[in-house]
């Protein structure tokens, strides 16, 4: 595969393919136009424009532009700078607010200064193209389509969609997960994880209170209760005549093998991201409390410590290590990480399968001395394994370095 990074889009290609089969000619045309536009943007990964009056670099300053339904950024009009007044256009204000919430989340929770960690400016372009059913991150800026008004509403209407796309930038500047096969699915999963966490953080929701849905506010406005993806139940985000059943797998035995091509979703990156998504959800609810505090910190530190070609097992092993380093070997956080990955059938290197088959995990009400003794024994066992995993990870890293 070429080293050129594809443009990141929130709407997976299999959704757009379904729209091409719609009985509604306007929906079909909007889907075709979106697919053609997406292909063009992928060929223009380095889209760059300069604007008089745009915010200066540094501290994640925001600027929102209005494309006025054109597709070329150089023609966009300045709509709202960082220090400017609120716009009369709701899409401009939604984009501005979401850019700020994402920036503030990374700053306050992880002490990260914008997407690149160096205060990268945050530029957003609303009303991009005519009835475009997608939102894009092109490596430097966010582009928002208006949607076709039937299957998608304006793409600025979902906070987690915007945070999802911006997190692709965070991944670019940390692990750099290559966008194909398992590393690409991890790339997509990181965006879903932190997109959901930004929404939870903004609402001050605990893990058990969150819906764990991606794109529910902009997807099929005429159908309630569905979403593009569900982190809690991959494969059950939607089921309707127009789009069929959500195809995401929730464990490795259901992994979807596709060609590493654009038509094959680069090896199924939007499909198989359901597996690490479910692992994060399980970790977060088993630890409890606010998901960004423990589970989110473990995932963020693991993201920074990962390599571009890492596979599911590599990342799972890194999260296990980070949980031990951050919260103590053998502690409930590390046990939650271990049991979550085992439930989605991703082994952690150096840990025998079945060590932490904990389905209820301290929240099922079945207390008692016997149960406490069992958890203590499990903690000791995991603590011992932690040392072995750490040494094994060092050995693997050295082997990678000699390639």
Structure description:
By secondary structure, this protein is an alpha+beta fold. It folds into two domains: 8-45 and 53-173, Roll (Elastase, domain 1), CATH 3.10.170; 229-401, Neutral Protease Domain 2 (Neutral Protease, domain 2, Orthogonal Bundle), CATH 1.10.390.10. Strand 5 and strand 6 form a beta hairpin. Mean pLDDT is 86; it is low at 43-56, 358-368 and 370-375. It has helices at residues 13-19, 25-42, 90-110, 159-172, 181-203, 265-272, 274-287, 295-305, 312-327, 332-343, 369-401, and strands spanning 8-9, 62-66, 77-81, 122-126, 135-137, 141-144, 213-214, 229-230, 239-240, 244-245. The strands form three sheets. A six-stranded mixed sheet has the order 1-5-6-4-2-3, with helices on one face. It has a two-stranded antiparallel sheet with strand order 7-8. Strands 9-10 form a two-stranded antiparallel sheet. Helix 3 (90-110) packs across helix 4 (159-172) and helix 7 (274-287) packs antiparallel against helix 10.
Which short descriptors sum up this protein?
secreted, six-stranded mixed beta sheet, Metalloprotease_M4, alpha+beta, 2 domains, EC 3.4.24.-
Superfamily (CATH H level) name of the largest domain? Neutral Protease Domain 2
* Morphology call: globular
What is the percent of helical residues?
40-55%
CATH class of the largest domain: Mainly Alpha
How many discrete structural domains? 2
Class inferred from helices and paired strands: alpha+beta
Strand content: 5-15%
Regions with little confidence, pLDDT below 50 for 5+ residues: 43-56, 358-368, 370-375
The helix/strand series, from N terminus to C terminus, equals: EHHEEHEEEHHEEEEHHHHHH
Query: Over the alpha carbons, how many angstroms does the gyration radius reach?
Result: 21 Å
Physical arrangement of strands within the biggest beta sheet = 1-5-6-4-2-3
Main location: secreted
Pfam family, one: Peptidase_M4
Protein name: Neutral metalloproteinase
Cofactor: Zn(2+)
């Amino acid at each position: 595969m070429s080293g050129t990074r594809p443009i990141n889009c929130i709407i997976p290609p299999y959704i757009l393919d379904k729209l091409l089969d719609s009985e509604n000619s306007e929906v079909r045309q909007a889907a075709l136009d979106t697919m053609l536009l997406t292909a063009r943007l992928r060929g223009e990964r380095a889209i760059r424009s300069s604007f008089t009056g745009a915010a200066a670099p540094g501290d994640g300053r925001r600027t929102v532009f209005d494309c006025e339904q054109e597709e070329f950024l150089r023609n966009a009009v300045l709509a709202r700078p960082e220090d400017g007044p609120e716009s009369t256009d709701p899409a401009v204000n939604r984009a501005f607010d979401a850019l700020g919430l994402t920036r503030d989340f990374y700053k306050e929770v992880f002490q990260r200064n914008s997407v690149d960690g160096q205060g990268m400016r945050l530029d957003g372009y609303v009303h991009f193209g005519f009835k475009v059913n997608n939102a894009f991150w092109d490596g430097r800026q966010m582009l928002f389509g208006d949607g076709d008004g039937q299957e998608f509403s304006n793409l600025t209407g979902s906070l987690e969609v915007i945070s999802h796309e911006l997190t692709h930038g965070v991944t670019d500047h940390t692990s750099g997960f290559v966008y194909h096969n398992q590393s690409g699915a991890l790339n997509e999963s990181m965006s879903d994880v932190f997109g959901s966490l930004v929404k939870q953080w903004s609402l001050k929701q605990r893990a058990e209170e969150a819906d764990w849905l991606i794109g529910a506010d902009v997807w099929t406005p005429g159908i309630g209760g569905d979403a593009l993806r569900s982190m809690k139940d991959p494969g059950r985000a939607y089921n309707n005549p127009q789009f069929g059943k959500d195809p995401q797998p929730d464990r490795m035995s259901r992994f979807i093998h596709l060609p590493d091509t654009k038509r094959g979703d680069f090896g199924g990156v939007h499909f198989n991201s359901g597996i690490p998504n479910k692992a994060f959800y399980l970790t977060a609810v088993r630890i409890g409390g606010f998901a960004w505090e423990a589970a989110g910190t473990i995932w963020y530190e693991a993201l920074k410590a990962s390599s571009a070609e890492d596979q599911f097992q590599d990342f799972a092993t890194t999260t296990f290590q980070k949980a031990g380093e951050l919260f103590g070997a053998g502690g409930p956080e590390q046990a939650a990480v271990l049991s979550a990955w085992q439930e989605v059938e991703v082994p952690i290197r150096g840990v025998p399968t079945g060590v932490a088959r904990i389905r209820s995990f301290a929240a099922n009400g079945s207390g008692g001395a016997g149960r406490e003794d069992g958890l203590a024994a499990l903690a000791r066992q995991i603590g011992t394994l932690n040392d072995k995993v750490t040494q094994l990870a060092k050995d693997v890293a050295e082997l990678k370095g000699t390639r």
